[in-house]
Write a structure and sequence with these properties.
The structure is a homodimer. Chain A is mainly alpha-helical. Chain A has two domains: 87 residues, Winged helix-like DNA-binding domain superfamily/Winged helix DNA-binding domain (Arc Repressor Mutant, subunit A), CATH 1.10.10.10; 132 residues, Four Helix Bundle (Hemerythrin (Met), subunit A). Chain A is 61% helix and 4% strand. Chain A is built from ten helices and three strands. In chain A, helix 4 runs antiparallel to helix 9 and helix 8 runs antiparallel to helix 9. The longest helix of chain A has 24 residues. Chain A is globular, with a radius of gyration of 19 Å. Chain A starts with 32 loop residues before the first helix and ends with a helix. At the A-B interface, helix 3, helix 4 and helix 7 of A face helix 3, helix 4 and helix 7 of B. The structure holds a DNA duplex.
DNA sequence: AATCACAGCATTGTCAACAATATTTGTTGA
DNA sequence: TCAACAAATATTGTTGACAATGCTGTGATT
């Protein structure tokens, strides 16, 4: 995970967020809070940012090279989406959902996503279908090459892209938010074997859609979500030694 | 509280927002952005704030008696919920959804709310049932007394309370957001007769829930939403002379 | 009379200093 | 050694001033 590229200010950065900055993707000339939000979103989605991690304003400023105002606005937006908890006079922390909230998140997903799957079957445009197919191939490629981080991200993105395929951007945003929060939940309560969505399940859902079988698409989504949910173990929350780990890293 | 400053600058206020401040409800000692967000939310829900109304920072500061920071944070939060549009160097405006967005909002509602109605039937707690009953009686009371504004607000709130009755606060927040945006849409494209939800429809839905008839509850919600949607007329958007109205008030 | 340029004003965007609070570190005493 | 207390530091919250931008009204020119 986030280790090498920070030549100049290695310890001034927040774990896991800035990583991709050294990739070839050119940064937008004008960094706005949306960019920061996206980055933190991704980091959470890929399990690079653990729940309860403190998000220090100053470090974030250095990391993204922006003023404090931008960082603060970004954190506020993230908190409104339940990804970050803001505690007054304490700071911002990556959200650490408990069992109750986890139940609500998966309850909402169970309500939304099967219905979305059904609707996608109803009216799917060819190009969106192609998008989904491409995504599935990316997933299996990542799986075959054991690119764990990519697989985690792609697993989540599938659900978002399916929602996008429904053509309703509002629904898509809602799903995106739920999936990201699910990522936090899985990170906390997931048993090791279920870090990602089980193999082939996404592919099966896509098949049902291709066959125009809305019933199958819906029930497969239901079972898929149930499987993820069943992979959680609330009685054994993972220890959160984030602070210690960070210290070991820094020295 | 903030009840004293308004006698002095009555015309420095933004239309429709501060109204209720003169009621007996004591203001929270420490006004935070949540309070401002709630107020603007309510004003939109009750059609007191028309789409495309400019939300001047300075006026909002005076209206709520807070600093610019609070107002800005509130506006940012509202924009993240699609209630407000932020245009750089121009300012904040009450969102003015077009037909496309309206379609998405009602599409999302059509997906969500019938499923919620069904789920509420599945496991409803007595006290929540009672809450819904009380709400219905409030609605009919407002209807009988021709308290139009109250009725508009209550019409929207019913949908939110139904979502709350499902016990899933995440779903409830999503519905709340959608209902508020619907309020904007109805204000723009609604024919006069459909400013509120048709009479008795909510009551019918509640009956179905009381009878434990999940199928009926679901289909009635579907039809209810369709009825609202059918009351929209996108070819004849209402004129938006908001600014003029404000000018008339101010001078 | 209509149009354009420009000046002045109003509004929003940005930043840096300051205040308030929390956290860490250091010290003292039992 | 440990606990309790106090100083020092770090972090967040808030405010105000300033810069940048957009808007409006005036007047000159055609």
């Amino acid at each position: 995970m986030g280790s090498e590229q920070k030549e100049r200010f290695p310890d001034e950065r927040v774990d896991g967020i800035a990583m991709a900055e050294t990739t070839k993707i050119p940064l937008p000339s004008r960094i706005d809070e949306t960019f920061i939000v996206e980055r933190i979103f991704s980091a959470v989605m890929e399990h690079r940012l653990a729940p309860a991690t403190k998000l220090n304003e100053h470090k974030l400023c250095d990391t993204f090279g922006v003023g404090r105002m931008r960082v603060r606005r970004a954190l506020l937006l993230l908190s409104s989406q339940g990804i970050v908890d803001l505690e007054t006079n304490k700071g911002a922390f990556v959200a650490s959902p408990g069992p109750v909230e986890a139940n609500e998140v998966f309850g909402a997903r169970a309500l939304l996503e099967p219905a979305i799957a059904r609707q996608v079957v109803a009216d799917i445009e060819p190009e969106r279908m192609e998008m989904l197919r491409q995504h599935i191939s990316l997933e299996s490629e990542a799986r075959n090459n054991s690119r764990e981080t990519d697989l985690i991200r792609l697993s989540g993105e599938f659900h978002v892209k399916l929602a996008l395929a429904s053509g309703n951007s509002i629904l898509a945003r809602a799903v995106r938010e739920l999936v990201t929060r699910s990522s936090l939940i899985v990170g906390l309560f997931g048993t090791s074997s279920h870090a990602t969505c089980p193999a082939d399940e996404h592919s099966n859902i896509l098949c049902a859609i291709e066959n125009g079988d809305s019933d199958s698409a819906e029930t497969q989504m239901v079972e898929h979500l149930n499987r993820i949910r069943d992979g959680l173990n609330f009685s054994a929350p993972k220890p959160q030694e984030r602070d210690l780990a960070e210290i070991f890293r820094l020295k």
